[in-house]
Backbone:
C-alpha cells in the first residue's frame, strides 16, 4: 500500500485477519450501520438476571465513573476501585479545553462523518476506522446525557449551548465549561456514580489500589488490591473486570498528568496476558510552562487556545541573552509563521512541539537552560486592547503569573512542550475487550481511537463514549454468552496473586538502599525524554534499551522505602508504580525502535522529509502493534493488526 | 532561603499527634509549597525517617486533594489559591511556618496532614445529583438555560471539595460545600424536580456526619480557593425553608 493507493472496497470479515490471537471483531456491513447492527446482534442480559453478575470497575475517572454508574443503573452489581480518597479526584478533573461532539449546532457543516474523518486523519492513519466512526456517532448522546445531569456547559445569551473551535478541525464542535470542562464532566459522572453508591448498587472502594489481575481458566475473574490505609492485601471476585485506569505519561516523570497517575493496573494485566497496543505513541503538548529547576515536580499545561492570539518566536541568533523587549523585530524568528504560513501559530500539536525542540536544539531557546520559546501577546494587545485579551485569557494569564512570577501582559510567556497523553494502551477489540476474555479496557487506558496523535477535546469524548454508551452493551454480550464456573477468593489463583503482591511489597520495604524512589523516577524520565521523547532515532533507542534494564536492576538493589506496609505509606505506593514504569519504559522503546517510520507523535529522525516533516510508511507500518509479554528480560512477541482504510484515504498531512 | 517548619506528625488515626520541627534548606522562590515539602521529604527519606504524609495529585488547583493549614490559614490564606498553587516567593528567608492538617470532627486525621474527607462524598450520595439514567436524555438544546443561570451554576459548581471551608469555620460547618452543590443543581431546569428533596437529604446527611452549624461568620468563603460566595448558603436556607413548608421530609 502506498499513500496514493485506493483501499479495499469491502471490509474484510474478521476471519481474514492474519493473527489468530488478534481478532478485532469489527462487524460487517457499511460503516454507518456497523454499530447499530452489532447492537442488535449482541446478546442481552435480561433485567432480572443482571443482579446475578458482579462487575469490577477499576478507576473512577470519566471512563470508570460513567461505566460504573451506567452498569449499576442497568442492575448489575458493581464494585468500583480508586486509589484516590474520592472518585471525584481522578485525573480527568484537570482537563481544561472541552469535549467534541458532532452536533452541528453551528450549522457549519459538521457531521458524524466529518468528526470521524478529522479524527482518523488527525491520528495520522493509525486508528481503526470502525471504532472511530462509532465514537463520532455516539458523541452527540454524550452531550445530551451530560446536560441532563446538570453539567453547566457554556451558553449563549439565547440560552443555547455555546461551542468553540479546536486544533485540527475547521468547524466549531467543542463544548466547554469555562476552562474546567473535565472537572464538570467528571462531577456529572461522579454524581451519577454517587447516586448508585447511595442506592447500594455500587460498592465503592476508595483509597484502594489494584495491584494484580487474576485470570482463571483463561478469563479475568478478579483483582488483588491493597487497602492504602491499613495495608491489607485483599482479593475480589467478579464475572468481568473493567480497567479504566488512565494514561501512563508519568513514565517520563515530568508530564502534565497528576502526580499519582500510573500504569500499574494495565501493566499487571499485560503481564497476565493482555496485549499492549502501540506503547510508544505519546502526545507531547506544545504549550506548557517550562521547567524552572531541578525541584520541578510536574508540568502545567497552558491551554492550546492561547495560540489563537499569541505569536511564537525565538531570537534569530543562537545564545542571544538579551531580554525579549530589547530584541528588535528583525532579529526575531517567528518560526511557525515562517515554516507553516497557512496554519502559522495554530499548527497541530505534534508539529508545533517538534518545531520548538528544533529551535532550542539550535541554541536559540530562551529562559533558564535554553528550553523555552516565547509566546508573545504584545501584538494582540496592541490590536485588540488589553481588556479583550484579559476577557479571553485572564485566568490563564493569572495562572501563569502565579507559577512563574512573571506578568504575561508585559513580558512574553515562555512555553515548552511537555508529555501530555498516551495514545498507546492495552489492545482491545471492537467490543473494548482485551486479549484476556472478560477483561475490558476503557478510556485513556486502552490503545484508543486516536491512532498516533490525538486531537484536542477528543479524550473526554472517548472516555465517556466508552463508559456511558459502548461498554454497557458489549459487556452484556460477553456475560450472556459465557458460562461461568463458580470461583471464590480461596481459589489458588487468588492465593498465588496475593502472595506475589505481598512478596513484592516486602522486597520494596526490605531493600533499604541509599536512593529515593523519586531519584530513580527522575532518572528514568530523563532517559525516556532524551531517547523516546519528541524525536527518536535508532541509536538513541538502542542506548535506552541498554540503560533501562540497568537502571531497573539498580532500583531493586538500591531503592530506599521507609516505613512499614501496614499503614499509609506514600513512598511504598510510589515505589510499586515506579517499578512498573521501569518495565513499561523498556516496552515503549522496543516499540519505538521497531516502528521504523514517523507518524503522528512518533517521530523517527531517520524518516523525515527535507523540510523536517514526518514521513509515514503505510506500506510497512499500517498496523497496530500489539505486544505480548513473554517474561521480564525476554523480548515480547509482536502481533500485528492490519489497518484498512476504506472511507478515509490516507494522505500526507500537510499544514504548509 | 532557609525556613523553619513546625509540622504536625501523627502516625495514624488512633495515635496522638505532635508538632515536629524541621529545617527547609536552600528553598528557591520558584518552588511551590508542595515542592518545598518534597525537598524536606527527600532528606527525611535519605536519613531513614518517614516523610511527611500529605495529599496532592494535580498540583494545579483543581483536584481538591491538597490542603493544609499554613500559619493558621487553610491553604495559606492567599485569595483563590490552593496549597499546591502557593509559591515560595511569598515567604522570606528565616520564616517560621506552622503546618497542620484540617481540624474538624467530621474530618478525622489519618496520618500527618492527611484527613478523611469521605463525609463529603456521603453528602453527595445523599442527594447531590440529578437522577438521569444513561440514555434517558433528549437533545441537549431542547431545554434552554438562561446564560446568567448557567454562569451562576458554574460559579457554584467550581467547588473542588477540598474542605478548606470546614477547616476555616470555627464551627467546622460544611454549609458552603453543601450549599454550593445545591445551588449548582438548583439553578438549572434539569435540577428542579428533585430540588427540595435534595436539600433536605443533603442537609440531613451533613448533620449526621457531625459538621457544625452555621453562624454566619463567613470564614468559609474567605478561605475558599474557588471563591464560592456566601450567597449560596442563603439560597440553601431558602430552599430548606420552602421544603419544610411543602412538607418534604
Ligand atoms: C492537563 C490536561 C488537560 C487535558 N485537557 C483535555 C481536554 O481539554 N479535552 C480532552 O478531551 N482531553 C483532555 N485531556 C486528556 C483527558 O483529560 C484524559 O485523557 C482523560 O480524562 C482520561 O480519563 P480516564 O477516565 O481514562 O482516566 P483518569 O481520569 O486518569 O482516571 C483514572 C482512574 O483510575 C484510577 N486508578 C488508576 N490505577 C489504579 C489502580 N491501580 N488501582 C485503583 N485505581 C486506579 C484512578 O484513581 C482514577 O480514578 C487533558 C489531560 C491533561 C493532563
Ligand atoms: S466550598 Fe470552597 S473551600 Fe469548601 S470544599 Fe468547595 S472549594 Fe473547598
Ligand atoms: S493538588 Fe490538586 S488541588 Fe492541589
Residues:
Amino acid at each position: 500500500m502506498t499513500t496514493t493507493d485506493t483501499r479495499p472496497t469491502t471490509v474484510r470479515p474478521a476471519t481474514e485477519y492474519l493473527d489468530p490471537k488478534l481478532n478485532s471483531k469489527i462487524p460487517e456491513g457499511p460503516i454507518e450501520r456497523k454499530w447499530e447492527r452489532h447492537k442488535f446482534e449482541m446478546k442481552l442480559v435480561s433485567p432480572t438476571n443482571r443482579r446475578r453478575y458482579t462487575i469490577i470497575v477499576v478507576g473512577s475517572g470519566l471512563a470508570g465513573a460513567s461505566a460504573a454508574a451506567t452498569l449499576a443503573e442497568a442492575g448489575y452489581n458493581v464494585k468500583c476501585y480508586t486509589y484516590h480518597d474520592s472518585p471525584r479526584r481522578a485525573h480527568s478533573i484537570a482537563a481544561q479545553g472541552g469535549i467534541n461532539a458532532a452536533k452541528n449546532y453551528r450549522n457549519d457543516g459538521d457531521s458524524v462523518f466529518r468528526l470521524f474523518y478529522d479524527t482518523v486523519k488527525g491520528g495520522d492513519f493509525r486508528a481503526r476506522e470502525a471504532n472511530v466512526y462509532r465514537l463520532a456517532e455516539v458523541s452527540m448522546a454524550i452531550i445530551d446525557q451530560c446536560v441532563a445531569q446538570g453539567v453547566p456547559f457554556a451558553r449563549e445569551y439565547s440560552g443555547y449551548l455555546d461551542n468553540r473551535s479546536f486544533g485540527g478541525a475547521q468547524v466549531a464542535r467543542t463544548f466547554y465549561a469555562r476552562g474546567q470542562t473535565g472537572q464538570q464532566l467528571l462531577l456529572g459522572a461522579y454524581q451519577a456514580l454517587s447516586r448508585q453508591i447511595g442506592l447500594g448498587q455500587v460498592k465503592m472502594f476508595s483509597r484502594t489500589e489494584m495491584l494484580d489481575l487474576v485470570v482463571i481458566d483463561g478469563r479475568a475473574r478478579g483483582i488483588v488490591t491493597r487497602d492504602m490505609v491499613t495495608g491489607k492485601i485483599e482479593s475480589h471476585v467478579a464475572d468481568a473486570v473493567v480497567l479504566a485506569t488512565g494514561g501512563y505519561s508519568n513514565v517520563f516523570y515530568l508530564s502534565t498528568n497528576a502526580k499519582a497517575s500510573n500504569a500499574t493496573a494495565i501493566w499487571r494485566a499485560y503481564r497476565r496476558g493482555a496485549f499492549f497496543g502501540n506503547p510508544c505513541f505519546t502526545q507531547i503538548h506544545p504549550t506548557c510552562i517550562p521547567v524552572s529547576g531541578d525541584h520541578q515536580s510536574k508540568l502545567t499545561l497552558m491551554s492550546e487556545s492561547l495560540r489563537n492570539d499569541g505569536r511564537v518566536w525565538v531570537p534569530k541568533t543562537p545564545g542571544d541573552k538579551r531580554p525579549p523587549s530589547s530584541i528588535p523585530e528583525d532579529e526575531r524568528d517567528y518560526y511557525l509563521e515562517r515554516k507553516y504560513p497557512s496554519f502559522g501559530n495554530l499548527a497541530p500539536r505534534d508539529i508545533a512541539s517538534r518545531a520548538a525542540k528544533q529551535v532550542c536544539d539550535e541554541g536559540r531557546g530562551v529562559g533558564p537552560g535554553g528550553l523555552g520559546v516565547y509566546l508573545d501577546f504584545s501584538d494582540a494587545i496592541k490590536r485588540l486592547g488589553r481588556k479583550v485579551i484579559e476577557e479571553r485569557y485572564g485566568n490563564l494569564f493569572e495562572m501563569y503569573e502565579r507559577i512563574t512570577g512573571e506578568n504575561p501582559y508585559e513580558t512574553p510567556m515562555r512555553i515548552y512542550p511537555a508529555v501530555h497523553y498516551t495514545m498507546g494502551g492495552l489492545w482491545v477489540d471492537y467490543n473494548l475487550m482485551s486479549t484476556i476474555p472478560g477483561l475490558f479496557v476503557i478510556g485513556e487506558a486502552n490503545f484508543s481511537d486516536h491512532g498516533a496523535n490525538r486531537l484536542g477535546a477528543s479524550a473526554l469524548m472517548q472516555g465517556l463514549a466508552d463508559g456511558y454508551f459502548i461498554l454497557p452493551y458489549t459487556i452484556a454480550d460477553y456475560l450472556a454468552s459465557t458460562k461461568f464456573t463458580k470461583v471464590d477468593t480461596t481459589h489458588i489463583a487468588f492465593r498465588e496473586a496475593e502472595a506475589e503482591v505481598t512478596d513484592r511489597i516486602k522486597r520494596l520495604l526490605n531493600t533499604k538502599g541509599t536512593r529515593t524512589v523519586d531519584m530513580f523516577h527522575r532518572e528514568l524520565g530523563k532517559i525516556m525524554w532524551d531517547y523516546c521523547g519528541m524525536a527518536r532515532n535508532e541509536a538513541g533507542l538502542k542506548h535506552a534499551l541498554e540503560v533501562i534494564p540497568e537502571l531497573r536492576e539498580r532500583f531493586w538493589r538500591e531503592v530506599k522505602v521507609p516505613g512499614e506496609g501496614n499503614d499509609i505509606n506514600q513512598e511504598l505506593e510510589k515505589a510499586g508504580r515506579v517499578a512498573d514504569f521501569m518495565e513499561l519504559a523498556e516496552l515503549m522503546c522496543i516499540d519505538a525502535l521497531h516502528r521504523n517510520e514517523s507518524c503522528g507523535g512518533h517521530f523517527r529522525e531517520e524518516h523525515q522529509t527535507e523540510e523536517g516533516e514526518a514521513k509515514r510508511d503505510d506500506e510497512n507500518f499500517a498496523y497496530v502493534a500489539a505486544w505480548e509479554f513473554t517474561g521480564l528480560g525476554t523480548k515480547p512477541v509482536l502481533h500485528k493488526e492490519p489497518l484498512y482504510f476504506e472511507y478515509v484515504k490516507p494522505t500526507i498531512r500537510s499544514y504548509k | 532561603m532557609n525556613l523553619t517548619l513546625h509540622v504536625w506528625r501523627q502516625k495514624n488515626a488512633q495515635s496522638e499527634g505532635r508538632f515536629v520541627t524541621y529545617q527547609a534548606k536552600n528553598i528557591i522562590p520558584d518552588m511551590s509549597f508542595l515542592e518545598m515539602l518534597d525537598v524536606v521529604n527527600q532528606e527525611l527519606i535519605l536519613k531513614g525517617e518517614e516523610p511527611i504524609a500529605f495529599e496532592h495529585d494535580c498540583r494545579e488547583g483543581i483536584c481538591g486533594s491538597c490542603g493544609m493549614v499554613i500559619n493558621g490559614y487553610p491553604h495559606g490564606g492567599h485569595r483563590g489559591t490552593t496549597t499546591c498553587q502557593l509559591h515560595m516567593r511569598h515567604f522570606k528567608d528565616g520564616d517560621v511556618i506552622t503546618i497542620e492538617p484540617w481540624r474538624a470532627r467530621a474530618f478525622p486525621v489519618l496520618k500527618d496532614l492527611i484527613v478523611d474527607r469521605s463525609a463529603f462524598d456521603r453528602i453527595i450520595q445523599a442527594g447531590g445529583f440529578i437522577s438521569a439514567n444513561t440514555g434517558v436524555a433528549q437533545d441537549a438544546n431542547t431545554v434552554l438555560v438562561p446564560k446568567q443561570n448557567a454562569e451562576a451554576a458554574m460559579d457554584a459548581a467550581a467547588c473542588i471539595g477540598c474542605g478548606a471551608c470546614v477547616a476555616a469555620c470555627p464551627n467546622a460547618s460544611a454549609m458552603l460545600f453543601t450549599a454550593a452543590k445545591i445551588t449548582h443543581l438548583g439553578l438549572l431546569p434539569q435540577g428542579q424536580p428533585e430540588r427540595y428533596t435534595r436539600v433536605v437529604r443533603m442537609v440531613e446527611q451533613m448533620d449526621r456526619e457531625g459538621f457544625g452549624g452555621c453562624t454566619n461568620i463567613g470564614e468559609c468563603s474567605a478561605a475558599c480557593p474557588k471563591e464560592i460566595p456566601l450567597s449560596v448558603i442563603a439560597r440553601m436556607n431558602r430552599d430548606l425553608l420552602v421544603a419544610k413548608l411543602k412538607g418534604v421530609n
Remarks:
- The pocket of iron/sulfur cluster (ligand 2) is lined by residues B 159-165, 176-177, 180, 224-226, 228 (CB under 6 Å).
- Residues 1-16 of chain A have pLDDT under 50 and may be disordered.
- DSSP finds 17 helices and 19 strands in chain A.
- Chain A touches chain B through 79 residues (CB under 8 Å).
